[in-house]
Amino acid sequence: MNDSSFKSSLDLNPRRDDDDDQRKSKVDDYKIKLPVPSIKRLFTLNLPEWKQASMGCLSAIFSDETSSGAICSRLAKDANVGRSLVLFVQTVSAVSMAFALGLVIA
Predict the structure, then answer these.
(1) DSSP assignment letter at 13
(2) Overall number of domains in the chain
(3) What range defines the domain where residue 32 resides?
(4) Residues near 18 by beta carbon (within 8 Å), at least 6 away in sequence
(5) Does a structural domain hold residue 94?
(6) Residue 25 to residue 3: CA distance in whole angstroms
(7) Is 6 part of a structural domain of the chain?
(8) Origin, by domain of life (predicted)?
């Protein structure tokens, strides 16, 4: 028994050369059928949304709610809320530890 017949007897799904040629031709056909994408077509497809997008961008720029002062004051308020929450958690944990240690020592 030669080496190639032994390998072919072990192969459960033997591949033939004509199968490979058919696969290659299908891949080549698929590559040929794809149209070349263009930016002009993309802009044309998005044309109905341009009005809303540009109006939204302009209103966000000129809105008082998105000015830098308003954003900074909101961030500072949120930071203060976070600090007070941390302070509250620290106080509760310190009181509970003191209570627990008082019971253990007494």
Answers:
(1) S
(2) 1
(3) 15-105
(4) none
(5) yes
(6) 31
(7) no
(8) Eukaryota
Which of 82, 48, 14 lies closest to 74 in space, CA to CA?
A: 82
Residue 2 lies in a domain: no
What string of pLDDT tens digits covers the 106 residues of the chain? 555 555 555 555 555 555 666 666 666 666 666 677 788 888 888 888 888 888 888 877 777 666 777 778 888 888 888 889 999 999 999 999 999 999 998 7
Task: Report whether 66 contacts 60 (CB < 8 A).
Answer: yes
Task: Give phi and psi for 2, each to the nearest 5.
Answer: -85, 170
Q: Taking a C-beta distance cutoff of 8 angstroms, is the pair 14, 8 a contact?
A: yes
What is the rounded end-to-end Cα distance, in angstroms, of the chain?
A: 91
5-6-12 Cα angle (round to 5): 95
Q: Which two tokens stand for residue 26?
A: 């299908």
- Amino acid present at 101: L
How many whole angstroms separate alpha carbon 66 and alpha carbon 62? 8
